[in-house]
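hey so u asked for the seq, here:
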Amino acid sequence: MLCLTDNGNGFYTVADPQPTNINSCVYLIAQPTEVQSLPWALTVEQGTQLSIAILGLWAVAWCWRAASSTLDSWSGDNNEGD
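ran it, structure tokens below
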């Protein structure tokens, strides 16, 4: 992170050297390497893979629910209204 300090005339300068105590900073600017380490900073390929995995899970859940309701209707054990 870059520490920006106010120089008094409405402009900000990058503190050199960077302070160890960030409380003296007016603004903190993230570096690109720090942003890439975020959990949701995905490439297009990674985002596509994650989307396919989520859609696949939803499809399995939908099929499981459809099979469950079909088996319930075949069993004749309708507890609705009891």
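The radius of gyration is 28 Å. Residues 42-73 form one domain.
lmk if thats what u needed
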